[in-house]
Amino acid sequence: MKKNLVAGEWISAADFSENLNPSDISDIIGQYARGSANDVDTAARAARAALPAWIAKGPQARSDLLEAVAKTLMARADEIGTLLAREEGKTLAEAKGETLRAAQIFRFFAGEAVRVGGDALLSVRPGVSVEVIREPVGVVGIITPWNFPIAIPAWKIAPALAYGNTVVMKPADLVPGCAHVLAEILHASGLPPGVFNLVMGRGSVVGDAIVTHPEIDAISFTGSVPVGRALAVSAAQGMKKIQLEMGGKNPMVVLNDADLGCAVDACINGAFFSTGQRCTASSRLIVEDGIHDAFVEQLVARMQALRVGNPLDAATQIGPVVSASQLQGNLAYTKLARDEGAEVVGGERLNGETEGYFQRPAVFLNATNEMRSSREEIFGPCASVIRAADFDEALALANDTEFGLSAGICTASLKSARAFRRHAAAGMVMVNLPTAGVDYHVPFGGRKGSSYGSREQGRYAAEFYTTVKTAYEFAG
After folding, report:
1. Does 376 participate in catalysis according to the annotation?
2. How many angstroms separate the CA atoms of 305 and 131, rounded?
3. Using one digit for the tens of pLDDT, what is the confidence trace for 432-457?
């Protein structure tokens, strides 16, 4: 029985949920506490009480603690990666890589903890000095999704602690295991009671309580667009600072002059790796007319050769879909694409050696940008292939979406690459690279329906996790 961590103590709950392996639903990973609104209340008040002492500890103590967490994650990467592969379903190689990324994030913010900057300015008034400093925003509520169950918690928790905040966190109900291990590591590192609190449970209970609690000053959320929009309304009523990372329907443009092999590699990676369960996945492949047929031929051949199976098998390239409901949604979109007139290749449910949620990757050929299957986020191993007459039409199609997270282009033309980088309406642009896959030391985020508020990661994280104070002093 895995308990919640509140005010430095492991506390039980009235209800526990089974954490199941999506590649083998007979494999019960563990029983995890489902907390209550009362647990959130206790955690938030503990975080508020712990805040002054945590700020007073200073940047070096915070840096040392984050460095210790990074070292532990590195040392336990194989163990945690195996747990991640079991509970979320991504391949073991991807899961270990994600664990190492979480360690890199903690290490990066260990450095940032001692580099919190400010400005000293001359006043326009004689004898007056001005200092602009950054201070912690306060108690931060963190709500994380299921698709990156250790990396996304890391890239929220690490900056929050580095800049002197205290935390109340709720992981996705589907994947509590990695978050619980991370909480164990933080607790064992000597973090003072109340500085970090873990309350697992349903979003409708724990998540809502975090967003509405008067002791929580800021909310960082990654998840679906509908939930994010509802959280924004609720947070605004409480005058809370909010940061939202939500969906994507990311375009990858392939021009006639692209290196065909490079383009296919980028699209296979972006569309299907991690079972397509990435907000940065390439779900619209916009292909210029002259290269379209050759691209489709190679893409389909490569896609059909991908090995779908148990993520702990080294030969597996695509693991299972995370849950039964997600699989049903994917299959419904596959049917919708066919009903809308697209030619669907792949996409069917597969039977594995064990009972799990396996699906063959799918492409929707002869798709148009007006189809619902080309406009709505599927969050599975499915991609629409849309034909474009030229660069201008491809760019227009790429930008014709309510989302704006990531966009990519494959081309040998420096002129086209620069024009796309300049005019793509997205927060991140990739040239001859997959739309998915980002570094930990640079800003992450998008535009339109994809993101709201300050960017995540890198030095830009300070914009959300700190507040600015301007101080004046008259020296006489």
Report:
1. no
2. 61
3. 999 999 999 999 999 999 999 999 99
Catalytic residue among 87, 94, 215, 245: 245
E-assigned strand segments in 347-476: 349-350, 358-359, 362-367, 382-388, 403-404, 406-410, 428-431, 447-448, 451-452, 466-474
Q: What is the signed CA dihedral for 350, 355, 357, 359, rounded to 10 degrees?
A: -10
Catalytic residue among 178, 267, 279, 410: 279
Looking at CATH, the fold of the domain delimited by 250-431 is given as: Aldehyde Dehydrogenase; Chain A, domain 2 (3.40.309)
How far apart, in whole angstroms, are the C-alpha atoms of residue 248 and residue 444? 13
Whole-model pTM: value is: 0.96
| Distance (Å) of CA 340 to CA 25, 248, 363, 365, 388 | 33, 21, 14, 11, 19
Residue 9 catalytic? no
Q: By C-alpha distance, which of 239, 255, 188 is closest to 390?
A: 255
**475 pLDDT band (50/70/90 cuts)?**
confident
What single-letter amino acid sits at 179? Answer: A
CATH classification code of 4-246+450-474: 3.40.605.10
